[in-house]
Amino acid sequence: MAGPRYASNAVERQQGFLEAMAETAGAEPLVAEGDFSAKSGADAVHCWMAHRPHPTAVIAINDSVALGVLEAFGDHDVRVPADIALAGFDGVALAASRIFDLTTVDQHIDQLGQRAVRVLLRRLGGPADAGPTRQVLRTRLLLRGSTEGPRRAAMDRSAAQAR
Predict the structure, then answer these.
(1) 74: which of 26, 39, 67, 123 is 20 to 30 A away, CA to CA?
(2) CB 32 within 8 A of CB 44
(3) How many DSSP H helices and E strands does the chain contain?
(4) Cα distance between residue 19 and residue 27, in whole Å
(5) What number does CATH give the domain 8-108+139-162?
(6) What is the mean pLDDT of residues 31-58?
(7) What is the CA radius of gyration of the chain?
(8) pLDDT class for 159, splitting at 50, 70, 90?
(9) 133 near 117, Cβ under 8 Å?
(10) What is the C-alpha to C-alpha distance for residues 4 and 15, in angstroms, rounded to an integer?
């Protein structure tokens, strides 16, 4: 579930997704264009459900889009993660809720904002010709229930057999 072409972060995320898919044998990427809203995620799901085959996993441009995808899957009786895996991007607090239990890539938005403010303040107090500043924050994959379908199902079967 891609973001708008005018946003460099959306383009870079899509490039990373396509590169990873190229390295995965048998994987066929399906890219749906959208924006950063939950509505664009829901709209994509309604379109996918009208065609076959359905995707087996969705990686959304951000957590808001992923939550729209999740809601629309409910409209079509598609269960996450039993029927389809779902992941977002941003690491917003709402994604960790027991209600959503969304796998997400945490990009440390709070640290990103703090560093941006420090760079801006340094530039405002420094020479006018201050060069570009580049800082890299490492992301972190937060695995949660929205991508644990097969593993969780196997664990549930093992627990039932043990009883």
Answers:
(1) 26
(2) yes
(3) 5, 4
(4) 11
(5) 3.40.50.2300
(6) 90
(7) 19
(8) very low
(9) no
(10) 13
Q: Which two tokens stand for residue 6?
A: 């005018």
Cα–Cα distance, 55 to 46 (Å, whole number): 12
Which 8-state DSSP code applies to residue 103?
E
pTM: predicted TM-score of the whole model, two decimal places:
0.78
Q: Assign 90 to helix, strand or coil.
A: strand
**The Cα angle at residue 88 between residues 86 and 89, in degrees rounded to 5:** 160
Residues 74-113: tens digit of each pLDDT: 999 999 999 999 999 998 888 888 889 999 999 888 888 8
User: Which one, of 129, 130, 134, 131, lies nearest residue 116 by Cα?
Assistant: 134
User: What's the token pair of residue 79?
Assistant: 């269960």
Q: What pLDDT shows up at residue 131?
A: 63
* Per-residue buried b or exposed e for 63-80, using 16+ beta carbons within 10 Å of the residue's own CB: bbbbbbbbebbeeeebeb
Residue 158 burial class via C-beta count within 10 angstroms: exposed 0-12, middle 13-18, buried 19 and up: exposed
Q: For the chain, which residues make up each domain, given as ranges?
A: 8-108+139-162
CA nearest 68: which of 98, 93, 102, 91? 102
Structure confidence at residue 51 (pLDDT): 81
Element (H, E) at 120: helix 109-125
Phi, psi of 143 (to 5 degrees): -75, 125
